[in-house]
Every structure is written in C-alpha cells, then in structure tokens.
Amino acid sequence: MVLDILKKHQVVSQEHATATPLTGGVSCEIYLVEDPKNKLVAKRALEKLKVEKDWFADTSRNLFEQRYLKYVGNQFPQYVPKILHSFEEERLFTMEFFPERFKDWKKDLMRGQTSMVVSQKIGDILGAIHKVSWHEPIAEGLFKSDENFHQLRLEPYFESMVSIHPQLAGQITALCSRVAATKHCLVHGDFSPKNILVSGEEIKIVDCEVAWYGDPSFDVAFLLHHLLLKYCHFNNAAYLDLAVAFYTRYRRAIGEERFLVVGEDNIVELTLMMMLARIDGKSPVEYLSAQEKSHIRERVIRLLGKNITKLDLLMEGVQHNENKVC
Fold it and tell me: How confident is residue 134, by pLDDT bands cut at 50, 70 and 90?
C-alpha cells in the first residue's frame, strides 16, 4: 500500500522500487524504500495500534509529526531527519534515511551500555527545544493537538488504569486535568530511548507523532521513567546516574526560570505514574518479568501515596531493598 502511494506520486520507480518493513513502535507502518536512485524512509499512521488491548487513534497525528520535524528542523537541523515528501491526504510522508551506524538508544541501554555523555546531550537537546518554543505563538498555533494527545497518552496510559487502581482514581484524574491544561512549549510526547538514534555523540530524534503544545514535564518524565524501569530490571545504578545526568543538563538548558514553571514536583509525580502505566496501562514494557512488575507496582503505589516532590527522594524510593527488584 505504501509503495503503491509512492509510485502513484512518482516518488520511486514503477518497476524497481522495494519497501522493507522497519522495526518501530506500535502506531505506524514504516518502511525503508529503495530504487536505483532513492533510499528513504516512508511512514504512515495506523488507525488501530498494534497492542493487545484495543487502542485507536486519529491518523491526523501523522501531520503533527511532520510539523514537529519541520519546526525543530528549522531550529536544530542536526537533531531530526529531513522530510522529503509529504502526502497529507494519505497520512504519509518520507524522510531521509540515516546510515546504519545510527542505533536507537534503547538497544544500547538493553545491552548495558550506559554513556553519560549521550544522556547529558539528550538533556541539552530537549531543554533547547522546550526553550526555543516556550510561549512561542507559531508553535502554539501549529500544535493544537489536544485530542491526539488524549488518545495517545492520557487515556491509554493513565485513564485506563482507573479501573485497575480505583484507589488512585482521584490522583489520576487530577494529574490528567493538570497535564491537559498546561500550555508552555512544544512537547515530543514519546521522548523514549527507542526514539533517540545515537552514533557516537551524534543524536537524532524521531517518532514524534504525539507532538503537542503543552506540558514540558511530560517529556522529562517520559525519559526518566524509562531509565528507572531499566534500573529496576538490571539492578544497575548506572541507569540512575544516567537519569540524574539527563535531568541536570535539561534543567540547565531550559533555564532556571522556566524550569521552576515546569515543576520538579510535576516531573516526579508523572514519572511515578508512567512507571505504573507501563505495567498496567495499554502500552506495557516488554522486558519486565511478572515478579519485577509486582515489586515495581508495589513500590510505585507506595511512593505515590507519600506525595514526594523531589527527584532525589524519587531516586531513593525506587532503589533496591532486601535483594528485591525496585
């Protein structure tokens, strides 16, 4: 289907073009498309996401992804792929193909490769994107994607857990209301290690279809919760060090005045709630054992009940105890 669309628009050869599926997330079709003259990546949004539970989302998110790449590309072209072709009606676009030397950061992390330099640079990049789009009218106008953000994040991650954890219903509802109402800057919305490509110290950000003008604490917490879950899985304090390095450099890059608005307390609460969501929400992580999930769930619910507001207390709270995970 994707190849047929590209042939129709004469992007690739009618006779010699091929499309090879690439690994990616749960929400799209993504292919490496090649012919004698071209080598590019094509991406098309899916209406029904590839997860066990029913999860549907408007394919217009593909348009917001294109806008993110263009907006950030205008400011920081070294950090995102360049869009080559855009076909809005088909919810499809093509972008440059990065050399094979680029690997998603998750692969390194799952192999125990923990680079402080990479983590620091990621903090620098995210802080810079948030800073340049902070209360910026063009960004605010381009990314009015509240409905998409709700479909892709607030409902599947948090609201879907209310029936599983009714004792947290009030806290979950209040968190979702706060996040939805916060409007400060351009948010990636899926700022995960799998969406950060790394080659040495070069960084590329991809898969930004959840792009939204809203709450910057969401992006910070999104990366932090991934690093903390990997700490829980591997029982390796290096992942905690990565989290602190990322957080510290982000705070410096966005500037203290803006960071105080972002709110350390908001970041901490979101990080904990995301850890729980990746166990009991619609998009669970794949590498945790049943025992690990049980211990993380117990620890996170206890920490949520303590209403902690500082990152150092969060780090202390998730650390291993009595040889148990997390």
Answer: very high
